[in-house]
Amino acid sequence: MKQFLNTNFKYILFVGVGLFVMYFMVYLFTPKPEMSELDKYKLEQLDKDIDSILKKQQLLDKRILEYKTELSKIDSTIAQVRNQKTIIKEYYKEKGEEITGMKPSQIDSLFHKRYKY
């Protein structure tokens, strides 16, 4: 193997240098992609459109937060109404139980006091 490399050293070197020169020539003479003015303009317009969409998205996010706060207020109001409803329901249940144990004359006097007739 050593003898092969010593005898063919020049050819191996020429082939290596030749390949390097060919690669360098191909690299130099290959046209580089260049962007036309129309493409640059289109990209600028797309950037502007994206910016406007992002601004609109931020406005929508703010509105969503406002609606969420309003919803939480409404939810708390509903919870209060439910609580009051159960309290009133228990109150009238107690009153109904009181009436079931009364005599007709006591019921009449109770309604007379309550409704003043």
If you average the pLDDT, what whole number results? Answer: 90
Low-confidence stretches: none
| Order of secondary-structure elements | HHHH
The value of Rg in angstroms is 46 Å
Strand portion = under 5%
Helix percentage range: over 70%
Shape: rod-shaped
Structural class, from secondary structure content? mainly alpha
Please give the alpha-carbon distance between the first and last residues. 129 Å
* Helical segment count: 4
Outline the secondary-structure elements:
Blueprint: H1 2-7, H2 9-29, H3 37-100, H4 104-115
Descriptive overview:
The chain is mainly α. Among the domains are: 1-30; 74-117. The chain contains 4 helices and no strands. It has helices at 2-7, 9-29, 37-100, 104-115. The model has no long low-confidence stretch (mean pLDDT 90).
What structural keywords apply?
4 helices; mainly alpha; rod-shaped; 117 residues
Summed up:
The protein has 117 residues and is mainly alpha-helical. Helices cover 88% and strands 0% of the residues.
